[in-house]
Design brief:
Elements lengths: L1 H8 L4 E2 L10 E5 L5 E5 L5 H10 L1 E2 L11 H12 L14 E7 L6 H11 L4 E5 L4 E6 L2 H4 L5 H13 L3 E5 L9 H18 L4 E3 H12 L2 H12 L6 H12 L4 H8 L3 H15 L6 H17 L1
Helix pairs in contact: 2-7, 3-7, 4-6, 7-8, 9-13, 10-11, 10-12, 11-12
């Protein structure tokens, strides 16, 4: 890994040791070989950082962003350091991790943290990883899920109140304390990957898995999949858009027609037309999944 990094970045990175690790002048990462390396902040661009975040594990800065309460220290040790957990302390509870990343410099960190905390309906733990990103530990996901479009509202409020661009990744809400560390790093890696594929303000973990599959598949295979399923309709953008909305509405003709401002019969005609041209009956779940993946491929390699 170090040889590959050196081939790409040259000699600008250093291998960390106890006396310099977490120097504020460097971005720090852990390699898959468990080696700590640092890249000078003033020489790194955003695209290079995004690339490093995909293949390496970013390390939090220990000084400015260190935990301030025993509860934060407990969770920090589990997520960031992989410390031993205490299952008896949680009595079978499950959690969710909500990751956020800011695109602008934050001036009011305390006010921002408090604002995030107050927008959740139940107790949360907020840990900062560095000056622009962190994780919210949602201690009661079931309560959080009772509020419709909560995360979209949080993003909109942050943008309007703090004049900041923020992106959030909503993890899957079934994390046990025993798998907290591995889930944290897996979802964080997914967050870094999906940002390169699909541009949104809010990503939901359960919905991004198809994108991750696309990201791991050879480009020539993706092209072949798209050609085999969509070639007969690819020149009809109205039909393509109709089918995208139809699938997004869980194949509900009435709901899709409403979203597209179409008569129900018109939408049904377009679905039938798509089936006739492609030979794929998207009224059935398994066939619909295949077309959904093909449409994602079309969007991302078009």
């Amino acid at each position: 890994m170090l040889d590959k990094l050196k081939a790409h970045f040259g000699d600008i990175f250093i291998v960390g040791h106890d006396h310099i690790t977490y120097d504020d002048n460097f971005y720090w990462f852990k390699t898959p070989d468990n080696v700590t390396i640092g890249f000078p902040i003033d020489l790194m661009h955003e695209k290079e950082l995004d690339l490093l975040n995909i293949f390496l594990t970013p390390l939090p800065k220990q000084k400015e962003f260190s935990p301030r309460t025993p509860e934060e220290e407990y969770w920090s040790s589990i997520l960031f350091k992989g410390s031993e957990v205490k299952p008896e302390r949680h009595n079978g509870e499950t959690f969710r991790f909500v990751y956020f990343q800011l695109k602008d410099e934050l001036q009011e960190r305390e006010a921002f943290t408090e604002a995030i905390r107050n927008m959740f309906p139940s107790k949360t733990i907020i840990l900062w990883e560095n000056e622009s990103s962190g994780v919210v530990i949602d201690l009661d996901p079931k309560m959080t899920d009772t509020i419709e479009n909560l995360f979209e509202s949080i993003v909109d409020n942050i943008i309007s109140d703090f004049f900041l661009e923020i992106v959030m990744y909503i993890g899957i809400s079934n994390v046990t304390i025993a798998e907290a560390n591995t889930r944290y790093y897996w979802e964080k890696s997914n967050f870094q990957t999906i940002k390169q594929i699909d541009k949104k303000k809010v990503y939901k973990g359960a919905e991004v898995l198809p994108f991750l599959l696309i990201g791991e598949t050879r480009p020539d295979t993706l092209v072949k999949m798209k050609e085999q399923t969509l070639n007969q309709v690819i020149e009809d953008p109205d039909l393509i858009q109709t089918i995208k909305v139809y699938l997004d509405c869980n194949m509900n003709v009435s709901l899709a027609a409403k979203k597209l401002y179409l008569h129900r019969n018109t939408l049904q005609y377009r679905v039938d037309k798509f089936i006739e041209k492609t030979g794929v009956d998207i009224r059935h779940f398994r066939s619909a999944v295949s077309i959904y993946l093909s449409l994602l491929i079309e969007k991302n390699i078009h």
